[in-house]
Amino acid sequence: MVTKASPLLFSSRRPNQPFPGAPSMQPSRRGFLKTSALAGAVAGSTITASSKLIAAEETKKLRLAAIGVGGSRGRYNRGGSIAHAAAKFATMVAVCDVDDLHTEEFNQKFDGKLNKYRDYREMLEKEKPDVVTIGTPDHWHVPIAIACLQSGADVYCEKPLTLTIDEGKQIRKVVEETGRVFQVGTQQRSSGDLFQKAIAMVQSGYVGDNVNAYIAIGGAPGDGPFETEEAPDDLDWNMWVGPASEADYCEERRKFFRWYFEYSGGKMTDWGAHHIDIAQWALAPGENGPTTIKGTGEFPKTVPADFNWNSFFNGEASLPNGYNTAMKFNIELTFDSGSKMVVTDHYKREDENIDFPNGILFEGDKGRIFVNRGKLTGAPVDQLTDEDNAKLNEKIAELRKGKAAMSHMANFFACIEDGGQPISDVWSHHRTMTSCHLCNIALMLGRELKWDPKAERFVDDEQANGLMSRKSREGFSAETHAAS
Predict the structure, then answer these.
(1) Mean pLDDT of all residues in the chain?
(2) How far is CA 2 from CA 126, 206, 370, 380, 470, in A?
(3) DSSP 3-state assignment of 409?
(4) What are the boundaries of the region Disordered (predicted)?
(5) Confidence of residue 50 (pLDDT cuts 50, 70, 90)
């Protein structure tokens, strides 16, 4: 029998406020990283041959470069923080950003000694870095990552990795061809006492069989249209837009790019890249992806009903200059095993007092557990014995691919040292992002979709297949920018 949820377990007293300028509805990123670090201590001894190597002075011989570093003008750009984390393990030699202010602010943290660039291709050619971090807006991730991999660098790229399903196929192919180490910045995968333990519990049967996941990732704003203006003189706006369709500058388009399909995928690829990833890892570790996708959603008022998204991405239709990603949604993805993921902006079951704006509820025929960045709770958690925890620790070790508990960045450098695969590799993240993109495509088309996860195509649906890729602006495709 399913255990009834307690009000304290799932109810939220804080309003869902994920919009620009609003306080976060979840623990801060700094708080989450502290929790992740604690996970390493809780898991027992974390010092291995790999972790000793990455702490050694030898790793400082690796030449590190940062592409996209954020700054005082930007939001949703973690490039600076990931680059600083990487600099603990290698020697930073260069920084590249289309905004001179960002470049200068970042360079000051390194006593002004870094070589500075606006064009990453010039940087790769002149600096020949061993390791690169990528923290650009999402639509630039794959073109830049491909160029870095083909230059011989190992790459740490912020999430979400891809803008489309076909981009995932592209980057997967290049990683396989080059053999470089590629880590995606989904740090939740390194949180041992929360997400890894939740996954281990699901896969080990602690919530029973017939497990489903109910996911809340927050909604998105629907503001606009906005006035355009002249871009700052020290910003290369044409390069910022890059492979996306040409657009005039406005602060909203730049600072809150996640709410424009031209550059990202809204909350579905923002928080979805985290929570859908964890849920799919737990529910379907041996499956390539879901087979059926259906649901409903609400777009901003700037998007007409029955809008032709295929024409939009082909450059044949336009929208007012406003946010255009889904604001609210409730989508169900079904796997061959029968397991389901339900992805919502805010999950509620009023009759059972379940209500949460952000997190994952795993429910099986033995009970249910809830996990987010602040807690792992539920009757199955409370009932764990010392013997159960010992078994779960063994399972968690498998999830870590044989490596000890360590930070997400440390895991990346450990893999550079020993040639292993990082905990957030390109294959798993491509599967995650495919599910995120499937959700968005189902919302765009407003109907149930059938997906062949092995062939990686929609079944008998050419309109949906047409949304798997985007037309890149001339001179900015992944192929031309990698080869230039």
Answers:
(1) 88
(2) 61, 12, 13, 11, 44
(3) helix
(4) 1-28
(5) very low
Find the domain containing 349 and state its range. 7-21+189-404+426-473
**324-378 per-position pLDDT tens digit:** 999 999 999 999 999 999 999 999 999 999 999 999 999 999 999 999 999 999 9
Torsion of CA 61, 65, 71, 77, to 10 degrees: -110
Q: Is the dihedral of CA 237, 242, 246, 250 positive or negative?
A: negative
DSSP string, 207-268: T-SS-EEEEE-------------PPPTTB-HHHHHTTSPP----HHHHHTGGG-TTT--THH
Q: Is residue 163 part of a domain?
A: yes
Q: Is the peptide bond before 225 cis (omega within 30 degrees of 0)?
A: yes
Whether the pLDDT of residue 7 is over 70: the answer is no
The residues, any chain, with a CB within 8 Å of residue 22's CB and separated by 6 or more, are none
Strand pairing category for 328-334 and 63-67: unpaired
The string of pLDDT tens digits covering residues 372-428 is: 999 999 999 999 999 999 999 999 999 999 899 999 999 999 999 999 999 999 999
What gap in Å lies between CA 378 and CA 392, rounded to an integer?
Answer: 16
336 within some domain = yes
Is pLDDT of 56 > 80? no
CATH code of residue 58: 3.40.50.720
The predicted model scores a pTM of: 0.89
**Tokens coding 369:** 């557990």
pLDDT computed for residue 429 by the predictor: 97
The residue ranking higher by pLDDT, 435 or 42, is: 435
Cα separation of 434 and 439, whole Å?
9
**Into how many domains does the chain fold?**
2
Strand ranges in 283-339 using DSSP code E only, listed in sequence order: 292-298, 328-334
- DSSP E strands in 103-174: the ranges are 115-117, 131-134, 154-157
Residues 6+ apart with CB under 8 A from 430: 161, 162, 168, 169, 171, 172
Looking at the domain assignment, is residue 416 inside a domain?
no
